[in-house]
Amino acid sequence: MELQLHGKRALVTGSSKGIGEAIARFLAVEGAIVLVHGRDREMTEHVVASIVGHGGQAHPVTGDLTDDRAVKRLITAAEDIVGSVDILVNNAGGSGPKESWETTQPSTWASAYDRNVLAALRVIARVLPKMRQARWGRIVNISSLAGTMPPASGPDYSACKAAMNAMTVSLAKAVAAEGIMANAISPGTIFSPTLEARFRQFAEERGLGGPDTPWKEIEHAVLPMFAPVPLGRVGQLDDIANAVAFLASPLAGYITGVNLRIDGGASPSL
């Protein structure tokens, strides 16, 4: 399917690795001019070089999204490079050490809220005026299944993602008439080297596999003990990137205020 993204200018925060990198790469394949963001300049430039090496258009931007002045400099630099941002993907954030309700501290919650919710807010506030002038824009906030299915541990992260979901709906209502669509995506259990190592360790401790056991066998044995996923597999980075690219495209012009769960059917409700 042609997503009509050629020439669209996309800023993907936290795209020097992981989910953000996969999103940046796929948007570039679809013809978007991608601003790859990270705090580490070398990692960010490495992703840019790889995208350009495969025929895409990409530029590096860096900055700490918990710093108002750094965000202002970042958006100024981005606009100097591409003119304005048509597509914003708020991917930066993430969880910290898993705390229990007995050990969690208010400072942990404040820090998590700053790097997840307020980081997204800072960037949205900077790019929104030009989207409004253009009367076209796409904002995709990367949330988490934890925002609607919070586990017992890590309550700060779940609360942050729930806040991001609510923020997305409010934003969608505020800007829909101006041609700007705002949506959230909530990944479930997604593959990463860290997840594979965790699954393998779990399997070895229980005699379910060893270092040479194929990943598919490990996945089949261990996943049901971590999460009830009807599809029977963990998600892949491309599963997230494909959905983001669609929501960022002109084809999604009547979709806004949605929280799209990419979870293999793990959620028990609509």
TrEMBL record:
InterPro entries: KR_dom, NAD(P)-bd_dom_sf, Sc_DH/Rdtase_CS, SDR, SDR_fam. Transmembrane segments: none annotated. It holds the Pfam family adh_short. Belongs to the short-chain dehydrogenases/reductases (SDR) family. It comes from the Bacteria. Gene3D superfamilies: NAD(P)-binding Rossmann-like Domain. It comes from Tunturiibacter empetritectus. SUPFAM superfamilies: NAD(P)-binding Rossmann-fold domains (SSF51735). Residues 8-188 form the Ketoreductase domain. One of its GO terms (biological process) is monocarboxylic acid metabolic process. This is SDR family NAD(P)-dependent oxidoreductase.
